[in-house]
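Hello,

Our lab assistant flagged a job as stuck in the queue for most of the afternoon. It eventually completed. Since we weren't sure the result was trustworthy after the delay, we are filing this so someone can double-check. Below is the sequence as submitted and the structure that was eventually returned. Let us know if re-running is recommended.
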Amino acid sequence: MQPLIDNARTFGQRPEEFARLAEGQSPEVLFITCADSRVVPALITGARPGQLFELRTAGNIVPPYGSGVPTGEAATIEYAVEVLGVRHIVVCGHSHCGAVGAVVRGDDLDTVPAVRDWLAHAAEEPRCADPADPTVAEAVQHHVLTQLLRLRSHPCVDKGLASGRLGLGGWYYEVHTGAVREHRADTDAFEAL
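-- returned structure --
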């Protein structure tokens, strides 16, 4: 913890670098990814403060719209699209994902009931030919595509797609190599960016 505290102490000693951020934000991208500590959107994309609007959930899960109860995920998506006017939404899954791996393997999650209920509520079972594969690559990639479909259930996303002012993208990040792949509709495969 101490290195993080030390950096936070010196971080604010460059106010001139951050003064423009007080004027507001206008990110072009809503980046939806996992809360996993190995996935750092700004590091992966090279984004500077103000360039990405982030939504991080366990397993980069996007719940379907309209559960009758407002969710933080729906509010974040709606705010990004309707207020900030993002032009792109990227759902980025990653290798070695604990959430997707737990679903694929059918792990007993009774000791973590909130996690169990979140995964049961929000994740349809991803396909995986080899559940023993520690990267769970196939399952994560399928999971990313499922989340892209779920985004379309959000009225603001559907409206943005229909008008052509919004685009969706699915990414897969390999934590063990740093490689990033994007889903290509023409080949229905995740390929290097």
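-- support follow-up --
The delay was a queue issue, not a problem with the job. The result is valid. The radius of gyration is 18 Å. Strands lie at 29-34, 52-57, 88-94, 167-173, 180-184, 189-192.
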